[in-house]
Model the fold of this input.
Amino acid sequence: MDNKKYCLGCGVVLQDNNILQEGYTTSLENDICQRCFRMKNYGEYQVVTKSNEEYLDILKGVAETKDLVLYVTDLLNIEKNLEEIRNLIPNKMILVLNKIDVLPKSVKEEKLKDYLESKNIHFEEIIVISANKNYNIDYLLKKIKYHQTSKNVYVVGHTNAGKSSLINKLIKNYSENNRELTMSPLPSTTLNTMIIDINEHLTLIDTPGLVDVGSILNHVDEKMMKKISAKKEIKPRTYQLRKGQSIIIEDLVRIDYVEGEKNSFTLFISNDLKVKRLLNLFNNEDLYDKNKLTYDIKYDEDLVISGLGFIKIVNKGVIDIYIDKDVETFTRKSLI
Ligand SMILES: Nc1nc2c(ncn2[C@@H]2O[C@H](COP(=O)(O)OP(=O)(O)OP(=O)(O)O)[C@@H](O)[C@H]2O)c(=O)[nH]1
Ligand SMILES: [Mg+2]
Done:
């Protein structure tokens, strides 16, 4: 046993020496650090940059156990490379698709599951939930009970997927415990693994999360982060574009439709983001200073913009996109 005290919100070691360093609190009598206190009480965020090496070590540690793992992913931001975490951890694993509440009601869960099953990555179960709306949490608990190999169940995934939100929901629903982990729309909220006893049969272990280096969230200010993070059901915005027309999302990304028949672009991004359509892209040079990428779109594909959401494009055609060079974009068969 060490005699360190850990923040009950984010897991960091508490210290009262240096206000500029992680884990600072005015008094070691407190249960949470100042950063968590501010996030919880004032919605004031302080970005912390985490290295992924540390997280990969945590995952290696998980792989050495035989415990059940919940892999949480955000439906609006399903990672390009779901195998990455799966390949590191041979344990029994449930894929938890979180934030169903932000997708339009018309989206069928079966379709989402079929999409993920078609990737042929082994999971014991694929379960669609909403941590925020408390949707399907009972069913998830039932499946946890069925698959767990010991008391301990690890919760892993990319940062911002909603791991801590899910654990808070499980605490609230099934525990006498009144602990509340810190949640925020910023990446790297949880800083360390945390052990949370739900009841005598179940202990959850929260983890910090893999940082998406290609996420647009790493390239915008706090105000924009809040705008990008969808809180309500997304109202898909459809634009019929002809060759020579264009869509601009805030000052984040520009999509020029340069080749193809009349086409339909449907945006699945937060309702708070402003979108502008240009009827003639030659009249406007906005965002041309950003990095340009060209995509050859096939029938019925999504253009995914990491951290932002995705755009469903119905017909084939060629698009030029302008975006910060470090933001990851890719195409996939349409999710919806
Ligand atoms: N709309 C919606 N938002 C959610 C849901 N679950 C979590 N969120 C939001 O997603 C953001 C991230 O949630 P966290 O619980 O902090 O995510 P995390 O995976 O623990 O993130 P890190 O600790 O940074 O790895 C917060 O803004 C949550 O409110 C959900 O079911 N629906
Ligand atoms: Mg967390």
Q: What stands out?
A: The chain has a mean pLDDT of 94. The chain has three domains: 1-46, 51-212, 237-333.
